[in-house]
Design a protein that fits this description.
Chitinase A, domain 3, 323 residues, 3% helix, mainly beta
């Protein structure tokens, strides 16, 4: 997969993917009563969670936590719409080791909320299933036995052993659209034609004869969303497709996978300049000159030369830190 973000050192929150947090688990049989403590350990009642939802999570333990099935409890009930099975949510996640009573990971370090599918495969089932019908703005406390968290192997990279109960605290920051929605806008000037597949998914761009690079960063709105505006401090959830001007096939896209969630500040310069001010729900076409893309070196692995102009279609499906 071609990474759009500009290169920078990885931060703890950015390691969620590489540490296996999104690896599907083998099974999950959850309850919401918090009374599934295993012998020798305590349940959810021994965990105290403080901090404002969306601002930070502090966890204190009153003894070892050990459960024999996944249990969850809504600590703070938000005022937003309940999450439905099959949709995505943006959430901050705390991961703790119930045996050692230590924090293993938190996405609040680096302010990088994660995209979480609700009651769907592709994520930790004990988290995903616990979010169904939970309102946006809520905080959910979860304890899961090892096999229902990271699988029987645990997660040694974050010091979760094969016998360690895993504690999750999930702050549901926002829900995420499944497709752009808003008012259709007639583009001004020439823009590539979007080749679409199923629904609104884009499969390629067709460049009209005579379309030439302007040499500037250009943003063309095709659908103007009615959501809040993205800021330079936002984490955004986007579907996208990128294609070099004059070429017949895209070099990267997310429509056939899952949307991408990253801070605006981690994208290439063209995206960093173009996305602030775009409203959630919008679909935009970006023309990104080489200097605001991958520079004179290009990206040979993706077939992008140092003088190539890139075009992107970007669907803004969600964002945090908006205005």
């Amino acid at each position: 997969m071609l990474r759009l973000p500009a290169r920078r050192a990885a931060r703890p929150a950015a390691l969620l993917l590489s540490l296996g947090l999104l690896v599907p688990t083998l099974a999950a049989c959850g309850s919401d009563d918090g009374d599934a403590a295993a012998g020798g350990g305590a349940g959810l009642d021994s965990i105290e969670v403080t901090g404002e939802v969306g601002e930070g999570i502090e966890v204190a333990y009153d003894g070892t936590v050990a459960v024999d099935e996944t249990v969850s409890e809504v600590l703070v009930e938000g005022e937003g719409d309940p999450l439905e099975a099959g949709e995505n949510a943006l959430a901050h996640i705390y991961v703790g080791n119930g045996e050692t009573e230590e924090q293993a990971l938190t996405t609040y370090e680096g302010d990088q909320p994660q995209l979480v599918p609700v009651a769907a495969e592709g994520f930790i089932t004990s988290i995903s299933d616990s979010l169904e019908d939970v309102p946006v703005g809520s905080r959910v406390l979860i304890a899961a036995p090892p096999a229902e968290a990271f699988g029987p192997q645990g997660n040694p990279q974050i010091d979760i052993g094969t016998a360690d109960t895993v504690v999750f605290v999930v702050d549901v920051v926002d829900s995420v659209l499944t497709a752009p929605e808003g008012e259709q806008v007639e583009p001004r000037g020439q823009v590539p034609t979007l080749v679409t597949g199923e629904g609104t998914d884009v499969t390629a761009l067709e460049f009209p004869r005579g379309l030439e690079a302007t040499g500037d960063l250009e943003t063309t709105t095709l659908i103007e969303g009615e959501g809040p505006e993205v800021t330079a401090e936002s984490t955004v959830v986007v579907d996208y497709l990128g294609q070099v001007l004059g070429k017949d096939a895209p070099f990267d896209e997310s429509y056939s996978r899952t949307p991408t969630a990253l801070p605006v500040a981690q994208f290439v310069q063209g995206w960093q300049q173009a996305l602030p001010g775009v409203t959630v729900g919008s679909r935009v076409v970006l023309e990104v000159p080489p200097a605001l893309g991958y520079g004179a070196q290009g990206n040979p692995q993706a077939g992008i030369g140092g003088k190539d102009t890139m075009f992107f279609v970007v669907d803004v499906l969600g964002a945090t830190n908006t205005k």
